[in-house]
DNA sequence: GGCCAGGACACCA
DNA sequence: TGGTGTCATGGC
């Protein structure tokens, strides 16, 4: 019987051999990563890209410039990402935190101890565990594993978890059984999302999915 | 025309 | 503490 660590390694190898280095997250700067992490909440990434392109097109994708926008104007700019009114509030809450606590500097923010910064981010209204961890891992290169809907779906199908696991339980499953390495966590999570996006929602089976599932529960 | 997408939060029992 | 409703666009 393989250990959890061995099984996680096998899962990683199947996906990594199939897809190779995915070079995530799509974003040019840590600030863009943070904005994308908020905009992508329950939203197709293509819609997020539209919103980010609009901000870039107006040369507004900096902490200072976004912080200076009226909420209504910001909401209109990010409209393609959906939930634009709530996301405008959430972006402004993050910007207020960044400007007042770190003078608008992502570098300064990431000098904080990882778990302490995570707690601070979770205090920002609109930033939950997944969003905070995405900012830490992809924006700050901190060794924090990100858990999302695809992660849950694939782990459930692969028999690692049942349907009632908390975010923290799943996160610890990875972090207690893998080396603490942000590059590994980055690629592992990227592979889970990539696999989930392209294969695990198709029926009846997902061959040539790298996971080679033999069941009929691809959209579980 | 319906379903879904890289969540988070308020509200309620 | 856990379940449910709400927020909304765009692709397929």
Folded structure, characterized:
By secondary structure, the chain is an all-alpha fold. It folds into 2 domains: 4-23 and 146-198; 30-139, Hypothetical protein, domain 2 (Endonuclease III, domain 1, Orthogonal Bundle). 59% of the residues lie in helices and 0% in strands. The chain contains 12 helices and no strands. The chain has helices spanning 4-19, 30-39, 45-57, 63-67, 71-77, 84-102, 106-109, 114-123, 129-139, 149-157, 167-175, 182-198. The longest helix has 19 residues, at 84-102.
Task: Please specify the SSE layout and strand pairing.
Elements: H1 4-19, H2 30-39, H3 45-57, H4 63-67, H5 71-77, H6 84-102, H7 106-109, H8 114-123, H9 129-139, H10 149-157, H11 167-175, H12 182-198
Helix pairs in contact: 1-12, 2-3, 2-9, 5-6, 8-9, 10-12
The chain binds a DNA duplex (13 and 12 nucleotides) through helix 2, helix 3, helix 6, helix 9 and helix 10.
What fraction of residues sit in β-strands?
A: under 5%
Known CATH architecture of the largest domain = Orthogonal Bundle
Briefly, what CATH class of the largest domain?
Answer: Mainly Alpha
Q: CATH homologous superfamily name of the largest domain?
A: Hypothetical protein, domain 2
Could you tell me the radius of gyration in angstroms?
A: 18 Å
Number of DSSP helices?
Answer: 12
Structural class by sheet pairing and helices: mainly alpha
Query: In total, how many domains does the architecture comprise?
Result: 2
Uncertain regions spanning at least 5 consecutive residues: 202-207, 214-220
């Amino acid at each position: 019987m393989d250990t959890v660590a061995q099984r996680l390694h096998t899962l990683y190898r199947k996906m990594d051999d199939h897809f190779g280095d995915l070079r995530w997250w799509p974003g040019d700067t840590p600030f863009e990563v943070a904005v994308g992490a908020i905009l992508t909440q329950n939203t197709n990434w293509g819609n997020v890209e539209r919103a980010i392109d609009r901000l870039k097109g107006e040369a507004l994708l900096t902490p200072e410039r976004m912080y200076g926008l009226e909420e209504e104007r910001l909401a209109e700019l990010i409209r393609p990402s959906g939930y634009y009114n709530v996301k405008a509030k959430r972006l402004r809450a993050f910007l207020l935190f960044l400007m007042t606590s770190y003078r608008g500097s992502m570098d300064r923010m990431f000098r904080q101890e990882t778990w302490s910064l995570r707690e601070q981010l979770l205090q920002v209204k609109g930033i939950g565990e997944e969003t905070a961890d995405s900012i830490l891992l992809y924006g700050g290169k901190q060794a924090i594993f990100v858990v999302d809907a695809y992660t849950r779906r694939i782990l459930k199908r692969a028999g690692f978890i049942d349907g009632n696991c908390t975010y923290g339980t799943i996160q610890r499953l990875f972090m207690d059984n893998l080396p603490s390495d942000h590059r590994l966590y980055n690629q592992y999570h990227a592979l889970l999302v990539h696999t989930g996006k392209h294969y695990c929602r198709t029926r009846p089976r997902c061959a040539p999915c790298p996971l080679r599932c033999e069941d009929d529960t691809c959209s579980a």
